[in-house]
Amino acid sequence: MGWLDNRVALVTGGASGLGRAVVRRFVDEGASVGVLDVSADGLDDLEDELGNSVVTIAGDVTRLSDNETAVERTVDAFGRLDVFVGNAGVFDDNVTIAELPEDDEALAKSFRDLFDINVLGYLLGAKAALPELVETNGRMVFTASGASFAPDGGGSLYVPSKHAVAGIIRQLAFELSPTVSVNGVAPGYVPTDLSGIDSLERDEGGLIDESEFDPSVHPAGIVPTPDDYAGAYVLLASEENSRPMTGTIVRANLGRDVRGIGA
Ligand code: NAD
């Protein structure tokens, strides 16, 4: 018995990193999963790994029509939609306000390129999934971040965009309760393409070499893997196990916040 037996989910940005770990774990827990991502190669690879348990849709979260196609293809393949996971995101390489372009057009483009994916993309995915989720009394789960609460990795575009994600979670929970539940997971640093810390060597327990240990980034010298976070998404996707939770953002950061490091 899995926690998500007979459930159907749609995950954006599921071709790599955190999203991919979530897709894998959802399938392990009995779900069938639609995956929307811009990376066609990543999606092919995912299909090779997970076969008929997934249906993949190559598309861009910044277009409503691509989100609608993803919902449609998922429902065509698996008959219903119970869970929407908004996760696709991009980083700003810690750009400071002073480093943002001077030119109006270039500045607006930097802003839009990031906010369109990190913020608008979540809203469009939620909008496209909503009619199906209303049918199933479904659940939405969004990837937030420590940067949703305070400057904690990221610069003057990424951190405001992740604060906006906290706003999306709370507003949609307010609007949609009790029909659809809306929650988030706020991971701390995790090695993925986005965070660019893939290169750290870890032993089996996740402990990194002393020479690379930076206590401001890795409390207790532990570097989690994307898989370590996937269980929090399973919890929030599972109606049986998190029914009363809505508008909640689960902090999963190895104690960075309680240690007073970052958010
Ligand atoms: P990642 O780069 O490994 O994965 C992001 C995925 O999103 C990729 O598969 C990419 O192709 C996809 N994507 C990007 N733009 C897209 C678009 N326009 N349309 C569809 N798909 C698109 O990065 P990750 O670290 O797994 O990031 C996933 C989420 O986790 C992001 O929302 C990020 O902000 C958040 N997050 C990451 C960390 C971290 O340390 N890595 C910490 C906190 C939160």
From TrEMBL:
Keyword Oxidoreductase on entry: yes
GO molecular function: oxidoreductase activity, acting on NAD(P)H, oxygen as acceptor
InterPro entries linked: NAD(P)-bd_dom_sf, SDR_fam
UniProt key word Disulfide bond: no
Keywords: Oxidoreductase
Family, per entry: Belongs to the short-chain dehydrogenases/reductases (SDR) family.
Protein's name according to its UniProt entry: SDR family NAD(P)-dependent oxidoreductase
